[in-house]
Amino acid sequence: MPLDLIKTLTYLTIHLTVGFTVAYVMTGSVALAGGIALIEPVINAVAFFFHEQAWKKVQARPPREGARAWLRGQAAFA
To answer: Looking at CB atoms within 10 Å, which of 24, 27, 41, 57 has the fewest?
Structure first.
């Protein structure tokens, strides 16, 4: 399984847990908290996966004259 997919799934697990807990504390309803916890984090996890893909493309580009050189010296976003 690719690392990006593993990261996305672990991120989704954490987000679902936090989302459900916060929604349950605020509403007191398991059903409502479950609905909130399923919809928002799933959409957010998909967006996160594509965000990671976009950053990979940015990092893979050859550096231009000073424009993105700062990215090459930074720690990897892996």
So the answer is: 57
